[in-house]
């Protein structure tokens, strides 16, 4: 029989209180950052607002994207650029889910990217679809009688541009 005094394994209250760490304090902690400052420029109120939007963070752009007029349009464009950078950063790390989500939302079609090789050749897949379109993806406008790009061609061009930008940004990181 061992005479070492130690709590028995049956004593659950002892073991439940040993080395407990309460994370509630961490979750409720307030982290302080340096001062936040935005310096606006411009002569008119609209120019000053657009100047502020041009410097805004992604969360601020997400909020401002619901605004109407020039401010909302500029915020949506800024949010798109920020989103593209986040997609590229994720793709650089091997996480292709954000890119897949964006392409599937644009095309309305299922898409899978399994590995880096598929990511690298993704643009070619959509360029092949573009080449396979009837009449190069152009239709005759009923009003003018001139050729105009079809909606399918526009979608494919948008996806190809997104892929090229993401690949270039990811490679530059």
Give a written overview of the molecule.
The chain is mainly alpha-helical and 173 residues long. It folds into 2 domains: 41-92, no CATH class; 94-173, no CATH class. The chain has helices at residues 12-17, 24-27, 45-54, 58-64, 69-92, 97-107, 116-120, 122-131, 151-172, and strands at 138-140, 147-149. It has a two-stranded antiparallel sheet with strand order 1-2. The protein starts with 11 loop residues before the first helix and ends with a helix.
Helix and strand arrangement:
Layout (H helix, E strand, L loop, with lengths): L11 H6 L6 H4 L17 H10 L3 H7 L4 H24 L4 H11 L8 H5 L1 H10 L6 E3 L6 E3 L1 H22 L1
Helix pairs in contact: 3-5, 4-5, 5-9, 6-9, 8-9
Helix content: 55-70%
The number of helical runs is: 9
The average pLDDT is 82
Globally, the shape reads flat
Beta-strand residue percentage: under 5%
Task: State the secondary-structure class.
Answer: mainly alpha
Q: Tell me the series of helices and strands, N- to C-terminal.
A: HHHHHHHHEEH
**What summary fits the major beta sheet?**
2 strands, antiparallel
């Amino acid at each position: 029989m061992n005479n070492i005094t130690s709590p028995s394994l049956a004593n659950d209250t002892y073991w439940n209180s040993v080395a407990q760490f309460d994370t509630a304090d961490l979750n409720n902690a307030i982290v302080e950052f340096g001062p936040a400052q935005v310096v606006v420029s411009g002569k008119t109120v609209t120019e000053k607002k657009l100047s502020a939007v041009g410097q805004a963070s992604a969360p601020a752009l997400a909020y401002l994207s619901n605004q109407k007029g020039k401010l909302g349009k500029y915020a949506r464009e800024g949010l798109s650029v920020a989103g593209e950078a986040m997609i590229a950063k994720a793709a650089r790390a091997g996480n292709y889910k954000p890119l897949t989500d964006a392409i599937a939302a644009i095309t309305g079609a299922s898409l899978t990217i399994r590995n880096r090789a598929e990511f690298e050749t993704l643009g070619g897949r959509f360029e092949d679809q573009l080449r396979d379109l009837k009449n190069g993806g152009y239709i005759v406008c009923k009003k003018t009688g001139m050729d105009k790009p079809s909606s399918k061609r526009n979608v494919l061009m948008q996806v190809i541009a997104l892929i090229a930008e993401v690949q270039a940004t990811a490679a530059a990181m």
